[in-house]
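lol so apparently i was supposed to do this last week
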Amino acid sequence: MPKILNNVKAVSEALDVAMDKWKEVVVYGEDAGFEGGVFRATEGLQAKYGEERCFDAPISEALFAGLAIGMSLNGLKPVVELQFEGLGWASLQNILGHMGRMRNRTRGKYPTPVVIRMPMGGGIRALELHSEAMEAIYAHTPGIKVVCPSTPYDTKGLILAAIDSPDPVIVFEPTKLYRAFKQEIPDGFYTVPIGEAFKIQEGNDLTVVTYGAQTVDCQKAIESFEEKNPDKTIELIDLRSLKPWDKKMICDSVKKTGRLLVVHEAIKSFSISSEIIASVNEECFEYLKAPLSRCTGYDIVIPFDSGEGYHQPNPIRIQAKIEDVLNYKF
Amino acid sequence: MKTKFLNVFDPLKNQRVELMDKNGKVLNEKLMPKLSDKQVIEAYKLMNLSRRQDEFQNKVQRQGRLLSFLSSTGQEASEVGYAYPLIKGKDWFVPGYRNNAAWLTVGMPMRNIMLYWMGNEYGSKSPEGVNSLPPNIIIGSQYSHATGIAFAEKFKKTGGVALTTTGDGGMSEGETYEAMNFAKLHELPVIFVCENNKWAISTPYAKSTKAINIAVKGIGVGVPSIKVDGNDFFAVYAVVEEALDYARNGNGPVLIECDTYRLGAHSSSDNPKIYRPEDEFQDALTKDPLIRIKNYLINKGVWDDKKQEKLDKEQDEFISNEFDYAEKNKNYPLEDVFNFIYAEKTPELEEQYKEAKEFFEKYPEAKGGHH
Ligand SMILES: Cc1ncc(C[n+]2csc(CCOP(=O)(O)OP(=O)(O)O)c2C)c(N)n1
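anyway here it is w/ thiamine diphosphate bound
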């Protein structure tokens, strides 16, 4: 029986399926046991699988990640929840310094197939440090894979792929989308392969690449643009995997449209868009009809709620960028 | 569980387990571990081997044939003392970076240790049947890793214990407390060792902490903690043996402070003469753990100068053979820098590998001086 779920319920569903399928899956995080975490993503798992497999962790982010490394190299599949991305910096030492390196350091003897999930991104009127989008740090790290699903189908499929993966995977869950909409998804086990993007719609004049909460903003922007410009069609791609990313799908699309706009809320410099634009430039230069472009957050400390609107791309900003790219003349 | 050491020697009163004096005379026969002469000699040989390897490595490092290394000189009783009672293939060793004697004891081939210090990752791959993680450079995190390993042991009911170690300086890292706290919450089979050698590079113990000893640092998180004379092989062995038993039987973690001294430099590029008081060093020399256990064996009539001479000669030959092997095998092909990043190369890595391969085939001299 397919289920109709929102994103956060798709997380629970994925964890439930995984814990049922592999008895070595262990889930923990702050308040993740009894209460099911602040977003209730792990709700019901402790009741179903016991305290040994789903438990509250003390507030000690450096430990969480280090613990998972030890667990994973000794045969378990830990799935760790960070309460918010911006509150988890202490775990970076272990993620970057050990998790990404252990397989290489031991020439393959001790891989660390850990999954770390974290709510990311803004637009939820939260406190300081609750709206960070620093995915580039993780994507920049050798040995780590990074995914960022935007739909319930992808959330379940990518989390299951992450748990099934022999490599450590960071799963960014856009907080703004947790309860934004529902979708019918298959029952039981299925995966969305890490590294494959999803084409939301076909188009001929511009390729828009995005991920996370901005998939929704981009859809709105494109819909409104296409209404006003019926002669133009825009191809929209949800990246889903940030590392590795689907260079082939994006390059094929740019070769067809000749134009690219990358959209994300993360800080502009040294970001996912930097990587995509540099790579597309290397591969598609002779196909280009306009400079490769992006619509992103600024290089600033993420503003509190009152200033957040200045920072995050929104449909109006994205639409303005689309117009700029399409109107560009050499 | 009935104990002879844990909860008997009180770190809050700065009590310390000592079984043998600095001349090798047994102080407390009743508490001595039950070890045969053969076993004690085996342990002594490992201590001697590590000491001689340190000396050898100092020499070749100065010749530029080793990048650098951190010596165990002065800490052999601690390291062999805690590593010797581990069960091979079942228990885990989760080291820091100053653990030469312990690595040899858990079964790490010397050639691997040398390869590591030559800058070759194959050196940190432990062979089948040796559950040892590589040297850990990021101080503190080994306590978390050991805790995770211990969690898995308990979860899988495989009965192994994880033993990890750091220095006195490392006990200032928050992660060590985080790990001990969690290990106690879950009653995990993990032994936390701190080799208190009094110095963290040039920072003395007194500038790392005001605590009267390291062992008290476990008490705040509820972990049974104990201080032992780290230059006394028997004291370390006996306490670790009890702690392993305690942890293996589901009683949770233990923190053990080995009170010892670093006789060598911090690393091969450090000069302790500029910060270490000479009288402190001279005093430490009189407590050399190697001399102490050797005197014990001589007093017992099972060791003498002739045996020592023969052993030194054999070990020197072994060390130099291992080094020859490592030196001859320190290079690996280009693909190995790409091969172990992910289970399978990502498309990006595949592309970059092809590019690098073509480049280095065309310009082999670009590989640099080491090849
Ligand atoms: C997290 C971290 N910070 C700093 C260093 C650099 N460092 C290497 S050894 C050392 C001193 C460690 O002293 P201690 O823990 O007492 O161990 P010892 O070297 O004396 O065995 C420092 C600061 C490091 N390796 N890791």
